[in-house]
Design brief:
Number of helices: 3
Helix content: 25-40%
Order of helices and strands: HEEEEEEEEHH
Number of strands: 8
Shape: elongated
Structural class: alpha+beta
Low-confidence stretches: none
Length: 138
Amino acid sequence: MRKFIIVTLLSCFSFAHDLHHKVEQNQATVVTFSFGGDADFSYQQYEVYAPNAKLPFAVGRTDSNSRVIFIPNQSGVWHVKAVSEDGHGASIDIEVDEHMQLQGYSQSFYERFQKIFVGVALIFALFALLHFINRRKK
């Protein structure tokens, strides 16, 4: 009986080395990065900062779908910074309300109209090139 009690007590200490986990489905904030089109931003470094924090709330690498996923635990403006190894990156602010919901995130003016700006610039460059070619022929 004494051996049984000793073995039982010693086996309790073995649970200290067991890695526990929990799977939950919460409302996470997902930020997807890309260079536009199909150019992905997979496995690049990121940092997430809580409101008014000096140390990062989360650090890591984007997943295979170029996403940063985190669950805010306080309201305020969260700062997400992602940088690739060659120095390209982005830094965005996301406002979270007291119910942990996103508050009116909107892209910057350039981000919203980036494709239009590029299209107009290409058309302008094409016509400028044609103008200089025609002018040179005369």
